[in-house]
Amino acid sequence: MELANKATRIRLFDFKSVQMRAFHMSWLAFHLCFFGWFGIAPLMAVVREDLNLDKSMVGSTIIASVAITVLVRLLIGPLCDKFGPRKTYSTLLIVGSIPVMCIGFADSFETFLMARLCIGAIGASFVITQYHTAVMFAPNIVGTANATTAGWGNLGGGTTQLIMPLIFTMIVSLGVTEAVGWRLAMVVPGILLFVLGLAYLKFTQDAPDGNYSDLRAAGKIPKADRENGGMASFKKAAADYRVWALFVVYAGCFGVELTINNVAAIYFFDNFDVDLKTAGLIAGLFGLMNIFARTLGGFFSDLSARYMGLTGRVRFLFAAMLIEGIALVAFSQMEVLATAIATMIVFSLFVQMSEGATFGLVPFMNKKALGGVNGIVGAGGNAGAVLAGFLFKAESLSYAQGLMFLGFAVMVCSLFTFFVRFSPEVLAEEKAAFDTASSGDDPIKARGGKPEPA
């Protein structure tokens, strides 16, 4: 759908306009979702001992944490088209907070596995984050906007690695056992998710000019029927082979990031003779790169579009992914802690730039099925994480070997960018839209920073 009054600039210190409120609330929501989604990852060494988990069991819980997200991401995009991102996000946050708080009741491998499976649903928050910024920002800046909200959201993967061990340590210092400490620590992100769900409903709206229900009643956007929204959006997106090419591409970048979020702390703990807190701090560096790395991917995607149109976005994505794969193979071969950290940071830079560049392309695939495209491509990330999880579940493979094979797989995934092509008509149309947005007035500035009426 085409929406009016999209922002042509990102004004970071603007908290009044609806476009920037959606920007800030969406990245914050996704950021906190990581605390629920991966909050247990830096504590796995303690959980492993408490529940007597072997390597295969730990691998199964890693797979469970990302497996259900594939299905939920496929569904959540069309739900955004039907109900709007505001109600969809609020519902996901509130409902998702329940299993996060309840994981502490797990007392066996089976119950812990089920808890991680249920928690994985909140990973679908990424799709809503990208959807919400895509409908709020114009073509000249949408790549940067998408990349920044997703990147600052993904930053939660790094801050989780840093903060959750501190929360755990603080709780244990009060005199409780470690077995009780990790359970109480997970209550904290659960409460935060619940509160933010209520805040999202109150402080955001679906589109620059209002909520979908009001816009449909006014005839400004199509009604959600068999032809528009819901499953119709999914079917339109699924019929486009280019969307599935990006599904594979995103499996090779975000799927890899999810995998590293799950295994980094325990990898450094087991292989470099560091304690749990230090392993968490090192692993946190990987996620902390999101503060700027994914934004760089979106920025260079927009910059490439300025000179080469949509073709430039595709070419940049291929280059970033290829370097990502090479860097991951190099990281897997490091045996000295300092060089392992250095190569991990280089790898982190390019995996996150690849993610930003992927969603620099997504808004241009099919504007009539934006939710469906976001859902399918977003699900690709988790599908990749599920497949990668089997590498770290196998007893016959070390973590280093698993990382090496994963790096080669990323190089193969980069080749799928060549399937993403556009007709000359679409290239010309989007180039004209980009130029118009670049030279036009910013609707936020024109209104003096005032929000649109809901």
Automatic annotation (TrEMBL):
One of its GO terms (cellular component) is membrane. It is found in: Membrane. Pfam families: MFS_1. CDD domains: MFS_NRT2_like (cd17341). GO terms for biological process: nitrate assimilation. GO terms for molecular function: nitrate transmembrane transporter activity. This is MFS transporter. It comes from the Bacteria. Residues 22-425 form the Major facilitator superfamily (MFS) profile domain. PANTHER family: HIGH-AFFINITY NITRATE TRANSPORTER 2.3. Residues 435-454 are annotated as: Disordered. It is a multi-pass membrane protein. Keywords: Membrane, Nitrate assimilation, Transmembrane, Transmembrane helix. InterPro entries: MFS, MFS_dom, MFS_trans_sf, NO3_transporter. Belongs to the major facilitator superfamily. Nitrate/nitrite porter (TC 2.A.1.8) family. The chain crosses the membrane at residues 21-45, 57-76, 88-106, 152-174, 180-201, 243-269, 281-300, 312-331, 337-362, 369-392, 398-420. PROSITE patterns: MFS. Its main location: membrane. Residues 442-454 have a biased composition (Basic and acidic residues).
